[in-house]
Amino acid sequence: MRTASKSFRSDTGSVAAKVLAQIQAVGSTSTTSNTWLWGWANESLPTSVTARICEVRDFGNSEALAKLTEPKLPDQEYLGWELTAIAAQIIGAKGAYRCPGERGFLYLLYTDLAFANSSGVPSESTTAEREGINCETHGSGQKAFICQHLLLDPRQEWFSDLPSPTKPWPDAWCSECNKFYQAQGEWNDENEDQIEIKLICNRCYESLRTNATRDKPS
Ligand SMILES: [Zn+2]
Ligand SMILES: [Zn+2]
């Protein structure tokens, strides 16, 4: 199964809080054709990331649920999330994420999540995540990472994972930096060097993010 690692490294090159996730691609929404396409029907996806999604189709077959068995459906804005939630329930996923793209969204499920230590080995500990930072404005707080552009001008579109209990201040980047993200489909050694990441405190993050013109995923 494919492993996606999605987080920034700090300026010094050390891993800040890396999450290793096993992902499954539920499907995608095209905003040009206004359609939903199930992952199992999408030939451009490797079968390793859709194997579990086939279970969702099989469930649809046995329960006679057309929404789960039709490869393509007309998509209103919320169908993608609705089907992703159903798929998550059926395969017991631990989380979901919507990848913004130029012509729509790719909906992903995490089937397993683990924090990685600096050697990339999954670890139970979230110590790295909880390392503190001393902010000039707010005093001691938690670390958060955003691209330099969002720091300079937060009044724009923000791209990030969905905030979650384990990651309430997910790494965030702007639409310019998102082009590098899209090129790789994740943050990795290839594209992390192409953008400049700033370390800020969680309260700075929250107050900056309230200025976001649009949040993705919302
Ligand atoms: Zn940026
Ligand atoms: Zn601060």
What distance lies between the first and last C-alpha atoms, to the nearest angstrom? Answer: 27 Å
Radius of gyration: 18 Å
If you average the pLDDT, what whole number results? 81
E-strand count: 13
- List the domain count as a whole number: 2
Sequence stretches where pLDDT stays below 50 over 5 or more residues: 1-5, 9-17, 117-129
Oligomer: single chain
Description:
This protein has 218 residues and is of the alpha+beta class. It has 2 domains: 23-112, no CATH class; 131-213, no CATH class. The chain is built from 8 helices and 13 strands. The chain has helices at 51-63, 66-69, 79-91, 127-130, 148-152, 175-184, 189-192, 202-209, and strands at residues 3-5, 18-30, 35-38, 72-74, 95-101, 104-116, 122-123, 132-135, 139-147, 157-160, 172-173, 197-201, 214-216. Strands 1, 2, 3, 4, 5, 6 and 7 form a 7-stranded antiparallel β-sheet that branches. The chain has a 3-stranded antiparallel β-sheet with strand order 8-9-12. A 3-stranded mixed β-sheet has the order 11-10-13. Strand 8 and strand 9 (139-147) form a beta hairpin. Helix 1 crosses helix 3 (79-91). The longest helix has 13 residues, at 51-63. The relative contact order is 0.17. Residues 1-5, 9-17 and 117-129 have low confidence and may be disordered. One zinc ion is lined by residues 135, 137-138, 141, 201, 203-204. Residues 135, 137-138, 141, 201, 203-204 line the site of one zinc ion (ZN).
In short:
This protein is an alpha+beta fold and 218 residues long. Helices cover 28% and strands 33% of the residues.
